[in-house]
Write a structure and sequence with these properties.
Layout lengths: L5 H17 L1 H20 L8 E7 L4 H12 L3 E6 L2 H9 L5 E5 L3 H6 L4 E8 L3 H26 L6 E8 L7 H31 L1 H6 L5 H30 L8 H26 L2 H19 L11 H7 L3 H15 L3 H25 L6
Parallel strand pairs: 1-2, 1-3, 4-5
Antiparallel strand pairs: 3-4
Helix pairs in contact: 2-11, 7-9, 7-10, 7-11, 7-13, 9-10, 10-11, 10-13, 10-14, 13-14
Length: 373
């Protein structure tokens, strides 16, 4: 048995280091992936609830009502859009452009002057459960501070002002009603990409792809033959997820099964095509799996709006989210489950998924050749 050699150890370690540095997958995992992840966590993930976008309906234009509106506009917790008519702001709330709505009614100052209790309506978007709670609590805090300022500055003791909270789309503020629909997009993103990426890469490794190339099969037939079985499996997976969510966990579904099915089909086509493209370029299961996770799962999890609100992200990160199919699919699923068939919210997202699915299929057809090179 040979004795331990420090020179041999150094030489072997040097050889392994050179081999690692020459391996693109090693550099991807050891250097590039951590850099991307820390960048995304630093700039793309935010649990802060500053500058929540709300609408303020000023039905009463008296001096006291305008002064209260100014209190809402000056607080650092809200980014306020003011209107005298609630119709535009209601549309913005449905489209998730704002997360809450504060309504100062027409008789606000009149009731204050007559020493009556004056209600203020606070409507929150229940599709973001934590944000909805913050909207209600912050609104109550703004009103309470305004009353105290009126007393300290003017010596006026105002009668009670109460906020009447209402929550749209998820009245019970159950996080499960939001998390489960959103998680379906993450699940579909992962399995859609991994199904084709790993299976086709495995065929490259085992040599069965070469056998296929020796047959008269056309490249388009080969691609469709790979996509169709996993497309069916993906649709069955989505059916299982929806069934379990609705019937086992009692998540309400108020939308259209047909629209959800079409959207799922488009999203799966994009994911399966992306997986085929990865396997065509990688031809190795390990590299294909890592590429699939980095290209599909992690961006979908962090940048789709599933857990972290896109509007709270920096402009550069927000721009990246428009390139992710999961962003549009999460919006479609949550709208279908919680709000119903709202075409102003659904059709732009479905159109974006259609474009992305067609783009990935086109790239796969262009990159796939009956060649061993």
């Amino acid at each position: 048995m040979s004795t331990f050699s420090q020179e041999r150890l150094i030489a072997f370690a040097y050889k392994e280091m050179l081999q690692a540095l020459r391996d693109p997958s090693t550099l991807l995992i050891a250097i590039i992936l951590p850099g991307i992840m820390i960048f995304l966590f630093a700039y793309g993930v935010s649990l802060d609830n500053d500058n929540i976008r709300i609408g303020l309906v000023l039905e009463d234009t008296s001096a006291q009502a305008r002064d209260l509106a100014k209190a809402f506009e000056s607080t650092p917790y809200f980014q306020v859009t003011s209107q005298t008519n609630r119709e535009k702001l209601t549309t913005a709330l449905i489209a998730s452009k704002i997360r809450g709505l504060v309504v100062i009614p027409q008789d606000f100052s009149q009731k204050l002057q007559s020493k009556q209790t004056s209600p203020i309506q606070v409507i929150a978007d229940g599709s973001e459960t934590n944000t909805a709670s913050f909207v209600q609590n912050y609104a109550q805090g703004v009103v309470a501070n305004w009353q105290m300022n009126q007393f300290s500055q003017n010596g006026i003791i105002l009668p009670s002002i109460i906020t009447e909270p209402r929550v749209w789309f998820n009245p019970e503020l159950k996080s499960r009603n939001v998390i489960l629909p959103g998680s379906m997009a993450i699940i579909m993103a992962l399995i859609g990409t991994l199904l084709t990426a790993l299976v086709v890469a495995r065929e490259w490794e085992r040599g069965s792809m070469e056998a296929l190339f020796s047959t008269p099969i056309h490249i388009s037939e080969l691609i469709l033959g790979k996509v169709i079985p996993y497309f069916v499996l993906g649709m069955l997976s989505m059916f299982l997820c929806v069934s379990v969510s609705v019937f086992l966990f009692n998540v309400p579904f108020v939308g259209s099964i047909f629209i959800l099915s079409i959207s799922t089909a488009l999203f799966l086509l994009a994911g399966l095509s992306q997986g085929l493209l990865i396997s065509t370029l990688a031809k190795n299961q390990f590299v294909a799996s890592q590429a699939a996770i980095n290209a599909a799962f992690l961006p979908a999890y962090m940048l789709s709006g599933f857990l972290y609100e896109i509007e709270s992200m920096p402009l550069a990160i927000k721009a990246v989210t428009y390139l992710l199919p999961a962003r549009y699919f999460v919006s479609i699923i949550q709208t279908s489950f919680l709000a119903g068939v709202i075409w102003s919210e659904l059709w732009p997202n479905m159109l974006a998924l259609s474009v992305m699915a067609a783009f990935f299929l086109f790239i796969v057809v262009k990159k796939s050749k009956k060649s061993l090179e």
